[in-house]
From TrEMBL:
The keyword Magnesium does not apply. Converts cobyric acid to cobinamide by the addition of aminopropanol on the F carboxylic group. Pathway: Cofactor biosynthesis; adenosylcobalamin biosynthesis. This is Cobalamin biosynthesis protein CobD. GO terms for biological process: cobalamin biosynthetic process. HAMAP family: CobD_CbiB. Belongs to the CobD/CbiB family. It comes from Dactylosporangium siamense.
Length: 331
């Protein structure tokens, strides 16, 4: 019974990845948008400018969808077809790799065409930096950094937690990551209230970010890079970033692409000076396209690994059941 559930999970995750590759994000009735409205309602009832209130908010906003996902997984434990469909739809909704790569390619097209106004208008689709004063090199850098970081957040993270914990893992990860985007940033309103969400997101991404970096190293030849150089830059520069996770992905991407990332970032009234990652020159539009291609390859590899892990667990469960049966018959 357990192995059938795990097999259904593996097939569902694979189908969800295929749906994302074919269609990108659902254009209407996106479940993540619905979760955002639910989280905003919880925030209205729990907000206070203090960390304990933020912890309560995070517990409710994450706990409710995870509990519902666990219930759905239990209800479909003897219905492999229904479970496969449920996991497929949830995986599709949780993944954002195809849309991420598409946004990166759009930015590359606008930069290639010299249309800075359109390129600046495109940047908010990728990150929260103020694009108003950015030139082509800074727009290219922001895009490459966003694509590298979000390959973990939008692809590898949900697949990793799906491989580890099935449907509740996919739902829980997407809830945590969405809360971080909503309240985890540094602002007057969320400096304390958003701490729990931000720290939980850091914890949830500790392993996925490093898996993303490792897959980026392996995939470097696809974009003309060298795995050895990508590995060297990742190990040297991954810890320089203020985020414990983003720097892993960005450093590996810088090494794979042979470029230099980092520098001055403006977020509204807040300015951050980020350390440089990598040894090459600043990214150009061609590097934006390469980053998008690298993200697609890393995402495909992560999908294959996640499905293999879940299917492998099914095989081990089946083998364990046969062994137990043999022991019982011998006794």
């Amino acid at each position: 019974m357990v192995n059938r559930r795990l097999q259904a999970d593996a097939i569902g995750m694979l189908l969800g990845g295929v749906l994302d590759a074919m269609f990108g994000d659902p254009r209407r009735w996106h479940p993540v948008a619905g979760f955002g409205r639910f989280a905003a309602a919880v925030e209205r009832h729990t907000y206070a400018d203090e960390r304990p209130a933020g912890a309560r908010f995070t517990a409710v906003a994450v706990g409710v969808p995870v509990a519902l996902a666990a219930m759905a997984a239990w209800l479909t434990r003897r219905r492999p077809v229904a479970r496969t469909v449920l996991v497929a739809g949830t995986t599709w909704a949780a993944l954002g790799g195809t849309s991420l790569a598409r946004e990166g390619r759009v930015m590359a097209d606008r930069l290639d065409g010299g249309d800075l106004a359109s390129a600046r208008a495109q940047l908010p689709n990728l990150c929260g930096r103020d694009p108003s004063a950015l030139g082509a090199p800074e727009l290219a850098r922001a895009t490459v950094e966003s694509v590298a970081e979000n390959t973990s957040d939008a692809v590898v993270g949900p697949l990793f937690w799906g491989a580890v914990a099935g449907l509740p893992g996919i739902v829980g990860y997407r809830a945590v990551n969405t809360l971080d985007a909503m309240v985890g940033h540094r602002s007057a309103r969320y400096a304390r209230f958003g701490t729990a969400s931000a720290r939980l997101d850091d914890l949830a991404n500790l392993v996925p970010s490093r898996v993303t970096a490792a897959l980026t190293v392996v995939a470097a030849p696809v974009v003309g890079g060298r795995p050895g150089e990508a590995l060297r830059v990742w190990l040297r520069d991954g810890g320089r970033h203020p985020s414990p996770n983003s720097g892993q992905c960005e450093a590996a991407a810088a090494g794979a692409l042979g470029i230099r990332l980092g520098g001055r970032n403006v977020y509204g009234s807040r300015v951050e000076q980020r350390p440089h990652l990598g040894d090459g020159g600043p990214p150009v539009p061609r590097d934006v396209r390469r980053a998008a291609a690298l993200s697609v390859v890393v995402g495909a590899a992560a999908l294959g690994l996640a499905c293999a892990v879940r299917a492998g667990a099914a095989s081990r469960s089946r083998a364990g059941g046969r062994a137990a049966a043999r022991v019982g018959s011998a006794a």
